[in-house]
Amino acid sequence: MRIAKEQLILYHADHQAAGETESFSTGSVSRGSASTGTAVCEQLATMLTELGFIGKPLPQFGSHLYQTGEAFFDHLVYLGCSPVVHFAGDAEADEPPPTCVAIDAGTKLVYGSNTVAPRCGHCKNALHGWTESLHAAEHEPAVVCSHCMTPAALSSLNWRKRAALGSSFVKVHGVFPHEAVPGETLLTRLQALTGDAWRYSYVQQPVVIALDEI
Question: Reduced to 3 states, what is the DSSP secondary structure of residue 170?
Answer without folding.
Answer: strand
